[in-house]
Amino acid sequence: xxxxxxxxxxxxxxxxxxxxxxxxxxxxxxxxxxxxxxxxxxxxxxxxxxxxxxxxxxxxxxxxxxxxxxxxxxxxxxxxxxxxxxxxxxxxxxxxxxxxxxxxxxxxxxxxxxxxxxxxxxxxxxxxxxxxxxxxxxxxxxxxxxxxxxxxxxxxxxxxxxxxxxxxxxxxxxxxxxxxxxxxxxxxxxxxxxxxxxxxxxxxxxxxxxxxxxxxxxxxxxxxxxxxxxxxxxxxxxxxxxxxxxxxxxxxxxxxxxxxxxxxxxxxxxxxxxxxxxxxxxxxxxxxxxxxxxxxxxxxxxxxxxxxxxxxxxxxxxxxxxx
Length: 323
Ligand SMILES: [Ca+2]
Ligand SMILES: [Ca+2]
Fold this sequence. Notes:
Layout: E1 2-4, E2 20-21, E3 46-48, E4 55-58, E5 66-72, E6 77-82, E7 95-99, E8 105-112, E9 126-129, E10 132-137, E11 140-145, E12 151-156, E13 163-168, E14 175-179, E15 193-198, E16 201-207, E17 214-219, E18 225-229, E19 234-240, E20 243-250, E21 255-260, E22 266-270, E23 275-279, E24 285-289, E25 299-301, E26 306-311, E27 316-321
Antiparallel strand pairs: 1-20, 2-16, 3-4, 4-27, 5-6, 6-7, 7-8, 9-10, 10-11, 11-12, 13-14, 14-15, 15-16, 17-18, 18-19, 19-20, 21-22, 22-23, 23-24, 25-26, 26-27
Bound molecules: calcium ion (2 copies).
One calcium ion binds at residues 83-85, 89, 91, 93-94, 121-122.
């Protein structure tokens, strides 16, 4: 049912990418006043479950379509991106929350698309690079000062329809970015791609309409990019321009988030199974965290070995020990 081929640690880093000038200011005036998010609920992190599933549930605190969680190790907080509405709606109401490792919401709308001077419509993946927080936002990547959260520019990608996950570029500067190539109805738009984005522009690393809706992206320790796909349930190793190799295929899989652990194992979230799977180095794929409805772009707190799981449709974040 599940095929896995070990990623060869061949030490091939991503090829240098010649950056294209972006030259786009993007559409900036998407301000909307929908204001439907509630942030009134008291913080109520509850210890739940038992055994492998034990952890902290952060619910009823105002999260609104949370898509990703990222551990900012510099300030030891978890950042949560909130789409707040439909994933591709240009509604100006997306926000980024700050959450303590103990599950306390420190600031629900640390970065808020409804604030003057900030544009955030449907924020999804996040990465930290070059001293900034980079956030994908449908057709643009927006940068924010990592300490203050102040807006620090944007790069818009021509033709992009569903920019999704980001990871720090292994060779820098900038980030790697997926476009899932989907529209508002989750129908393919044919622009599936992996990009290298810097503050100055972007360039395609892989552009392939048959990519299967690339979603999560991370890097392995040899500098290889790992991309998982939502529509085809695959994982690819990307070693250079237009060079991708399938390393995992999950029948019916709807893969969203991916993290590579220090020992080479992978964590992959799968909407189809409501699981976070552990992919062992021998190819064994195990559902180690079940009963997670719509587990989106997971994060990993390596110091505590906690897996950070946003539940897209349940407006919750789970903090789960890996064990
Ligand atoms: Ca929104
Ligand atoms: Ca995602």
